[in-house]
Amino acid sequence: MHLFNTDGLKNTDVFPKDTVPIFLDDDFRVIEGPSYWAIALAQKRSRSIDTLKQYTTVLARFLQWRDDKGVKATNWQMTDEDVINAYIGYLINNRDIKGRPSNKTIEDYIATLSYFFKWATKKGYKHYWKMDLKKVTIQIKGSSSMVKTEKQVEKRFQIDNGSTMHVDREQDKFIHRENIPQIMELFDDVVYAFIVLVLWKTALRPKELFQLPYKGAGLNAGLKRYREEELSVLKEILFRFESKGKDRDIKFPPDVWTVICRKWMPERVKRAVRYQERNNGKMPPNNALFLSEDGRVVTPKMLRDNFNKVAQDPRCPEKKITPYMFRHAFATYFILDRLKHFNLLGKAYVYNAVIDAELREWMGHENIETTYKHYVHLVNRYFHNGLLDVMDDPVNKEILNAFEK
């Protein structure tokens, strides 16, 4: 069995990958199913080049093992639960002196194989691995192993505090940042697009969000409308608010408040007139930054209703959208970017006081495990499974630039 990279598939729209892996048997004939799978992976934006290589390498090792047993890689469809258990046993009994592959690595191998066989089922390839291919877990004890096939079993992994993190469940409450510009365009009222921007860049809870003033006072006096020449040198602004019965503050991002001043404040002035018409000439309160198009102060219920409406739009790129999900996405991408900066992405958990202190300040948590360890393990698993792209300023700039339109 051979695994090659070829540039002869450029017409398959696999940008930005320069080459695509291709599986060949010992006579250099294409092994159809695995090769088409590699092409399908290359076409996914969420699959980086490293992830593509990792996935295809796992499958190549499995096919080579079949070759070595005399079954032949071309007979990959002749795979059932017993074959998978035998392969796990082979991996366990042939570990190197450092104990590699570890139990966790073996579980990842089988999860990748299940992903391939799930794809093969959808594409009409008949095979004999009749487990639930969407969710799989492995129990490994000593040199024995068992692949669970119950339909409700989830792919899971243990974090250091002994609790179980369910990847599928976490994924359901996660918003990918490359989808945020498209999400903002789906709101009927632009006020909710501005709210999305604030939620995404500050990790505020909805109740905290609605304490943002139109014109701040006291410690929040810095939250006001600035002239254009002032915006060019704007620094971080203190925002103090009540959070779960306690006072808390963050340094409000100057780039977000610049967008608020340039694009939202003029619109808010127009909506204030409609508020007056609805309220016998009374001006809207200064502690109400967000007004709807018809001149009402935006409430948490209005926010939820509009988010639900967008989530039901067939053009929405996410299955579910709630205001709180942007807080979760903030923490996830914050850790992703920081781990990349410190060259810790994908590596074993190491406590970093700088990262923890930064995240704890934004999230307002006191427990280290909820503000740091949980997200480190989650990000590493997402990254390992190809669920996150390491994207920095381009996406953030695209989100901010969306308001210039």
Automatic annotation (TrEMBL):
Q: Name one GO biological process term.
A: DNA integration
Tyr recombinase domain span: 170-392
InterPro entries, alphabetized: CB (IPR044068), DNA_brk_join_enz (IPR011010), Integrase-like_cat_sf (IPR013762), Integrase_catalytic (IPR002104), Integrase_recombinase_N (IPR010998), Integrase_SAM-like_N (IPR004107), Tyrosine_recombinase_XerCD (IPR050090)
Matching entries from CDD domains are given as: DNA_BRE_C
Keywords on record: DNA integration, DNA recombination, DNA-binding
Q: Where is the Core-binding (CB) domain?
A: 18-121
Q: Does the keyword Phosphoprotein apply?
A: no
GO molecular function terms listed in the Swiss-Prot or TrEMBL record: DNA binding
Highest taxon above the source species: Bacteria
Q: What is this protein called?
A: Site-specific recombinase XerD
